[in-house]
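Researcher: I'm comparing several assemblies side by side, and this is the next one on my list. It has 1003 residues spread over two chains. Same procedure as the others: predict the full complex and return the structure.
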Amino acid sequence: MIGTAPRLRPAAQRGLGEKLAAVHWPLVALLLLIGLIGYATLYSAAGGAHVPWAWRHGVRLAVFLPAMVVLALVDLRVWLRLSYPFYGAVLLMLLAVDILGEINKGAQRWLDLGMIQLQPSELMKVALIMALARYFHGTRPDGAQRALVLLPPLAMILLPVGLVLVQPDLGTAATLLVSGSAMLFMAGVPLWKFAVVGAAGAAALPVLWANMHDYQRQRVFTFLDPEADPLGSGYHIIQSKIALGSGGLWGKGFLHGSQAQLSFLPEKQTDFAFTMLAEELGFVGAMLLLALFLAVLLLGLVIAVRAVSPYARLVAAGAVINLFIYVAINVSMVTGLIPVVGVPLPLISYGGTAMLTLVVSMGLLLCADVHRHLVIPRFPGER
Amino acid sequence: MQQEADRTRGFSRRAVFLGAAQLAFFGALGARLYHLQVRRSAEYTLLAEDNRANQRLLVPPRGRILDRLGRPLARNVPTYQVLLVREQASDIRRVLDRLAGLVTLTPAEIEEIQADARRQRPFVPITVREGLSWDEVARIAIRSPELPGVVLDSALLRDYPQGEALAHVLGYVGAVSPTEQEIDPDPLLQLPDFRIGKSGIERSYDKALRGRAGLSRVEVNAIGREIRELDRKEGEGGADVRLALDLDLQRFCAARLSSELSASTVVVDVRSGAVLALASVPSFAPSAFTGGLRRSVWTELRDSPRTPLVNKCIRGQYPPGSTFKMITALAGLEAGISPTVQVRCQGSVSLGAARFHCWKEHGHGRLGLVQALEQSCDVYFYELARRVGIDAIAAMAARFGLGQPTGIDLPGEQPGLIPTRAWKKATFDEGWHQGETLVCGIGQGYVLATPLQLAIMTARLANGGLAVTPWCARIDGEQQPPAPGPIGVAKASLDYVLRGMRDVVHGPRGTARAAALGVPGVEIGGKTGTSQVRRISRADRDAGRHKRKDIPWEQRDHALFVCFGPFEAPRYAVAVIVEHGMSGARAAAPIARDILRKTLEIDPAPAAPASVAALGGDPA
């Protein structure tokens, strides 16, 4: 691994080469490996062709993974200073999306910036953990236990959650709520407060149900009994389960998943990419992929624990939480444990925004590791 | 500083907790995957297979119908059609325009094909033209590089090489009706292009001709496109059905009848009941039905008073007239009335206020049974009928197969009608009048019979009283019906009747002396019949109108003749009915004579069972 001596020097004073040497390369390698598995999966999804998905996935990997390393080399304090402005900008974008949706009379999740389409709700996943990390970095060490101190971060969480709910995007809203709560937990908020909020939330469920869109309710119904509507909304879940189950222990072989290759499996290149992989590579292949993700998660937690500054620790934990939520929701969804909510599997599924979000999260995680010995004052001027 | 250390410890604890939670969650996901992929794998594998594989029926070729010598009467001929697959034709319009230069395609047809193509999925072939000639096929095949997406396909079309001569016997095939789908579970019937026997032999032997479907399992994707064949189970082609019928005799019959406006004939083997010829004119071209019928043609066929669509041999019901007199005669003989008892015919008899006329205005004088048959004296049979009563006549008629379906293996047979007292009570709620007995005694009034029934009646007379039933085909391997049993009429009685029938042709005063074959040493037996279509009123009779040729065709009398031969050892029975032919002796008898002579020439009877041969060998 990496020598110990250079790390003792303040990171800010280190040269680029030293910083590069300090990057957690095993983690980068793991992410690259997962990305390559994604490439193979998309190659198979196209019936054994690089077009239309695999090669673009590859291009993204080639651009994003180096970019992730670049993010890691930037001084962590830069990210700390950018946390609030970034959060604010993304919040404004969310607002813009909502307003556009209101004008266009329909669901709107994308912000068309001409060159690229941005999904602000995805960016918010990163912005939220940055902002919360920034906030708790600035509080007194016991701050997380005071109710008054907790009001601003609650607002930071609920504001974007509300804006995303309005879009309406139940899945992402729930994701933000869970990752925000997990951040509060990691920041040291007492457990009993979670219990109180949890109880309040349970009490609010009927209200939420009453305000849900029909298609959202339908998703819940479908989840509860997918066979009731096999050709309608239950089709995805049934076909996914058939694909998984028929894959068996060892799978049908790469490029030989009948469910996926004959198009019975819907959205095999995006949300159901994991199903496709598990059909062709079997239980063993699926578990190997999950093990890779788990390794990234646990390494991330190690990084979080060994960092010195609260910002580094919380940002690292947030990155882990983000990845975990992606993987947990996607795999639960395709195995029929939760309703179909349209969450992709990062680095495997085709799609730019999710990969971007993940790469930024992972870049912050790596950055926190590179700068784990850096002591950052609670606020400018404090010594 | 202490607080900071606490916070760090707290963070580490919570990180461990978070890690443990993640581990647990992944464990749960692993368990779920294990459940789906390992424990329930077999079940889901089946479902995936269901998804993947479509079963497609392979249509077996329909069996042929052959005559007794194996000559094809119904067969399958390949027909070529040209199809177009949209996704392979880059520009449908251009391809169709090019095709129009090779086969005739009107602009309207091109429009229609394009509309068809738009409605279908791009990989489904669209029919452009059916029934291509071999020349057209060749032209398209040569130009195929310039015709992307154009596919030539061959199918089997049912063909009836004998055309009209056998249309009624063979019937035809047609599209399956919903009712037929309901009562027959054969999956073949669910196929949209499948053809099923609609009438005639095609219908009655449909199951044998149809064969059994094969099965091809093909891999399909989610939108139903076939990817490849997985496996294939060949079906069983339909069996050929061989008829007892003789093609030459059938053609002869049809040709011989063709000079008449509307007529029918049946030739049966008197010992086995095998139908050797069965012709009804006018007929229709069966190809009109397989190739799609024009509406005007259909209407004309359906509405013609000559009923070309009806097989009159089994569906035409006529008063048998004097051909029924054998039945009345036997009823008298079996009732114990001696054949030597003489009746004096003065041209008519009176019963109450009614007067019943003989066909011979001035009477036959005194005659016994044999002479009465020979000269077909109505008064004699009025008297006989009066003595035995209607129910005895009806019972005798039933023994000869009249008044009930013969059970021939052709669909749509009519039962004819033999009235009884009970029948009249049930039908009209009226009592029986004795006058009706007299009329029925000469085969008029309510009595109705089909040509087939008359042929079978004649066969049962000629074979010495064996209850033969008619049949067209026997399927190999199927249980054969038992040899016909006796109908229970004394041989002596039969002999009197047969003698009378011989004298009809060969007697000095026979009514059908023209029916003699003209072959030295070969005698036959026969009986004329001229049955009234409308009641002859007194005014008609007084004006002499009832015999005149100028009455409308539809009101003229039917002409009938039944016969069998050779007289000494009967082999064949023939019944001929010429609708509105006016005279059995003049219109029907010559036809029957020619047909019987032709039958004897060909001698098409299948080898009869030994017992039948023994019993039927010496009728006289």
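Model: For your comparison table: Residues 2-39 of chain B form the longest helix (38 residues).
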